[in-house]
Here is the input.
Amino acid sequence: MRRSITSLASILVLFCCARRDVSAQGCLTGSPAIPGFQMSLLDKETGQFTFEVDATPKADQNGVDAGVTLATARLSQFNDMAATVRFSRTSVDMRDGSSYRADRSIAFTPGLTYHIRMVANLSNHQYSAYIRPSNSATETTVGENYAFRTEQANVSSLNIWGAFADIGSITACNGVAYSSYQPPRLIQLDGVKDFVEIPDHDAFSVNTTGELTVSAWVRPDTLSFSKIEGSGYVDFLGKGEGSGTTGQQEWCFRIYSQGNSENRQNRISFYVFSPDGHLGNGSYVQDPVTVGQWIHLVAVVNSRSTYLYKNGVLRDCDNYRPNGPSTCNPPFVTVTPTNGTAPLRIGTTDFSSFFQGSIKEVRLWSRALSTSEVSALYNGSVPSNGLVAEYALYGDVVPGGSGPNGLAFGARWLP
Here is the structure.
């Protein structure tokens, strides 16, 4: 049985999330009440490199004047700042030589988190800056090819990032610098609030072509999940939300928590649903699961049946409509998958439960992969025919290949 939820806007809380390579992780706080500047070390950067950080400006009774900066030596005064992005009164600007300016007027809202990307070039002592709200994939250019602060015009390296505030305060988290960026390839989810969301796409629905294949590598960090639903399970990858006459349920992967009321310890399932989201039909495996151990899962759906593979081997086949193959289990309940409008989510489906652990290499095909193709996929050979999206999961903007991009909320990125 599926539960409906309140609207996304009423429950969603955004947290910092950033791509990480050579990084100074954690948060810095800039405030007039804190003496001097807060700062953290980076690896010594020369030539051209990129710095990214999540910054949350906060206003006091006088507003806000705060920012983040890059420097080459210990920050003790404003003259030490080489490249700076500032939240000033009502708009965002950056230092250009002897003054602050911006290519355009960019308003901001105190209390919201913004992702800042700075590209610095030590060879010509210039930098560019881009900004976006943390819940948006669209960047706005603050300025391009601005000069380092006049007092820092000839620095040969940068190895410090910092936060400062004259008015109000700022919290800056997850600063990361990289020149030759090798992105991490998995996401770590806290089991409480973290998820990735990808917009609705017709190719993610079974009945678009009559067939669908979904694959993912999954590593649970616990066997007793804290945010469960129903009899004690977590829907950790799927497309569906709501229930009843307004439901948009389609399909999902599910893992049962230890101690669930149906005695389904360690069970991992794949279900298809009718839009109302009542009882679904699907396939499962119920083997011992080891915390911290990777599992490769592939669900294949055609017009009548579901097939579930674990680590490259077919483990279960079930008909969800009458007159399916006799080699598959008869339908527990008949369902009619329908193309709905719900987004694809990783880590949860409709916010009723959340997965604790890591997920990587989520891929979708608009056809049913064969047994030999699934085996080849498990061994690292990705079939390209019919591949409609792949999410390697290596940053807070989640590239989808030929599919739509997604956004990560609250997750950590690991190598």
